Amino acid sequence: MTDMIERVSPVLERLDERGRAALFTDARTARTFTSTPVSDRELLEIWTLAKWGPTSANMQPLRVLYVRPGVQRERLVRHMYERNQVRVDAAPAVAVLAWDTRFHHYVPEILPFRPELQDMFEADAEWRAADGTFNATLQAGYFILSVRAHGLAAGPMSGFDVDGVNAEFFPDGRWRALLVVNIGHPGEGAWGARLTRLADGDVVKWL
Amino acid sequence: MTDMIERVSPVLERLDERGRAALFTDARTARTFTSTPVSDRELLEIWTLAKWGPTSANMQPLRVLYVRPGVQRERLVRHMYERNQVRVDAAPAVAVLAWDTRFHHYVPEILPFRPELQDMFEADAEWRAADGTFNATLQAGYFILSVRAHGLAAGPMSGFDVDGVNAEFFPDGRWRALLVVNIGHPGEGAWGARLTRLADGDVVKWL
């Protein structure tokens, strides 16, 4: 089992140009998709790659709800902001990324040598929410790059009614939506112009 | 200039096994580093790759403060939680990742066709903070994978006194710290055991 592999010394390598292009420099957010379906296997593999990205204390609070086309998809479309509705409606696959408000219930499994952490998170809901949303959002970043690592285009959208999606799909309150991501093969007119990135000097400082 | 390249149709490709290993499956959080320095050029390139990851409305709120060894590093070490102090002290390079509370000031440059967004963010500080921290955290995920894409090991840490770091390095309140990331070549004892990932069925659901 992959989970059990333990390497004394991982090999560190620079990502080659093709990899850089696929994940970063050449990749873009897709606005349209072809009708080519994305298989359940591909969707699962997107997760099983993304899951290796690091989180604080290994808490892995991200959860993934894949919503198939048809009746279920319609339930999601109606909570999207207007210009995202047609995109979600037409995408071959759509993931609702959420964080699990009870991620700490897995402490015995994922951080067995620090069992006290479960009670600490249980006792402090504010810290738990801050830590859970932060780490799930880091994982959302890994997830988007993992979609691309599978030769697929991602269309992440934060423009939706979060409370509406939560009430619709997570009525017991355990999961809470963070981001909706369309997934598929890019269709006609998928790419807008590349938007400008900030000048390095406005972002990076040195001390 | 790379920023000006516009491709009608990016080539989508699956990441090969070496790339998957370097960024995800074989990569690990490093706890120690060799004394081999990381050049300023490498540190800048980590950013110039990570910057291509997508953010909502292209707002790119993440900021990066690199803190060199010596006097400046000592200012940071004292705000780290205990077991992170020696790690930050010994790392060849350290980045404080932060979000810019005034990221919306760049709207005319980064989203020129929606100038009204600047006023909307200005008027709603709560939405601005939620959006800014969310998108900067997504970018922190891209940043960690970009460190790895440069053949370097990352040591991300959320265990520090956030208010202390903010007061120490960002006294004007404009930037706010999110994560501290050690960067370098892995040293002796860098790797702990690979921590368990959650079972797929506890994370991924289908509708």
Which key terms come to mind for this protein?
alpha+beta; 41% helix; 9 helices; disordered N terminus; homodimer; globular; 5 strands; 4-stranded antiparallel β-sheet; 207 residues
Offer a concise description of the structure.
The structure is a homodimer of 207-residue chains. Chain A has 207 residues and is of the alpha+beta class.
What does this protein structure show overall?
2 copies of one chain form a homodimer. Chain A has 207 residues and is an alpha+beta fold. In chain A, 41% of the residues lie in helices and 15% in strands. In chain A, strands 1-2-4-3 form a 4-stranded antiparallel β-sheet, sandwiched between helices. In chain A, α1 packs across α7, α2 crosses α7 and α3 runs antiparallel to α4 (82-90). Chain A starts with 16 loop residues before the first helix and ends with a strand. At the A-B interface, α1, α2, β1, α7 and β3 of A face α1, α2, β1, α7 and β3 of B. β5 of chain A pairs parallel with β1 of chain B.
